[in-house]
Amino acid sequence: MKNILIVSVVLMSGCTFMNVNELGDNRYDVTSHGNIFHSKATLVKDIEAKAVKLCGVGNYDIVGDSTMTKSRYTVRTGGVNAPSGANFLSRTIECKNK
């Protein structure tokens, strides 16, 4: 039982991180990465927060496909097979005036 609790805590404490690639002309490709517990809404919120940092409040448009990509696999830890994986969402941010 102790092993299951430890595995659950480890799986739920995953990080969210962002990749930002400058495309030129005040455009950025932003990808938000999260663990299997991060919803699409959470990833969108992270991208919107990054848009504010890059362009300023209300000074951007977010364009492109909003399909979330999911990667799933199983990890074995403490003798238990546990589901794991990641969620990814990429969008393009266009700054209006920078």
Question: How would you summarize what this structure contains?
Answer:
The protein is α+β, with helices and mostly antiparallel strands and 98 residues long. 28% of the residues lie in helices and 47% in strands.
Task: List its traits.
single chain; 98 residues; alpha+beta; five-stranded antiparallel sheet; 2 helices; 47% strand
SSE order, as H and E?
Answer: HEEHEEE
Number of strands: 5
Query: What number is the mean pLDDT?
Result: 85
Characterize the overall form. Answer: elongated
User: What class do helices, strands and sheet pairing give?
Assistant: alpha+beta
- Helix percentage range: 25-40%
N-to-C terminal Cα separation, in Å?
A: 55 Å
Cα gyration radius (Å):
17 Å
Q: Please, how many helices? A: 2
Report on the biggest sheet: 5 strands, antiparallel
Descriptive report:
There is one protein chain. This protein is an alpha+beta fold. 28% of the residues lie in helices and 47% in strands. The protein is built from two helices and five strands, in the order αββαβββ. Strands 1, 2, 3, 4 and 5 form a five-stranded antiparallel β-sheet that branches. The longest helix has 16 residues.
Helix-strand layout with pairing:
Blueprint: H1 2-12, E1 17-24, E2 27-35, H2 40-55, E3 60-63, E4 69-77, E5 80-95
